[in-house]
TrEMBL record:
Belongs to the polypeptide deformylase family. This is Peptide deformylase. CDD domains: Pep_deformylase. Keywords: Hydrolase, Iron, Metal-binding, Protein biosynthesis.
Length: 216
């Protein structure tokens, strides 16, 4: 049920702060567990699967089917020990991702974003962080990738309410990574040809620690 606290001036699932961004750091354990316990873990699609390499469809129906998908995504994310998961990573062609991710201060963030769009940052706010990045859809492979250390995403929550999410450091990387997924981009698509080849070699030489969908 959507929150009804009119003092918040927000009818969404999560409360918002004074600047209009969702407060996704409260009751994280309870909220994540409530989703996950209703869900069924699904295997992860891997690079090469067509659903990962095209823009997903917009979410237009915020009914029970979407709620079950989100629950399955949280369950799948926990099985794979990930910090973010896009719907196409379990084979569903819809613009929705979930996250359970700490920022660089160790603060945990848990939430759902449908139809996300990254907010373009002015040049003066773009400070790049060249940290290592991995992906559940490119299992066992990691590579350094420069991304802004701050990110904002607009979209809708799982009930269709408009939301704004922001993050720094590792969480900022997560928001950018998962939004990329829903527009058909994997992090390895942002690497040089040599780095991409090296990442795919890492993946080929190791076994994933969670169930994956083999590409035919």
């Amino acid at each position: 049920m959507a929150q009804q606290d009119t003092d918040q001036q927000h009818a969404g699932v999560l409360p918002v702060d004074d600047e209009g961004y969702v407060i996704d750091t409260e009751d994280c354990e309870e909220r994540e567990a409530a989703w996950r316990e209703r869900g069924t873990s699904r295997p992860i699609t891997v690079v090469g699967n067509p659903v990962l390499h095209k823009e997903c469809k917009d979410v237009t129906d915020f009914g029970e089917e979407l709620q079950q998908l989100v629950a399955d995504m949280f369950a799948s994310q926990r099985t794979a020990e990930g910090v973010g998961l896009a719907a196409n990573q379990i084979g569903v062609d819809l613009k929705v991702f979930v996250y359970d991710c700490p920022d660089d201060e160790g603060v945990r963030h848990v939430g759902v974003v449908c139809n996300p769009k990254l907010v373009e940052l002015p040049a003066e706010r773009r400070r790049l962080d060249d940290s290592s990045e991995g992906c559940l859809s490119v299992p066992t492979a990691y590579a350094s990738l420069a991304r802004p250390d701050y990110a904002e995403v607009t979209g809708q929550d799982e009930k269709g309410n408009p939301i704004r999410v922001r993050g720094t450091g590792y969480f900022a990387r997560c928001l950018q990574h998962e939004t990329d997924h829903l527009y058909g981009y994997l992090y390895i698509d942002r690497l040089s040809k040599r780095e991409r080849k090296a990442a795919l070699k890492q993946m080929a030489e190791n076994e994933p620690r969670y169930p994956v969908v083999a590409n035919d």
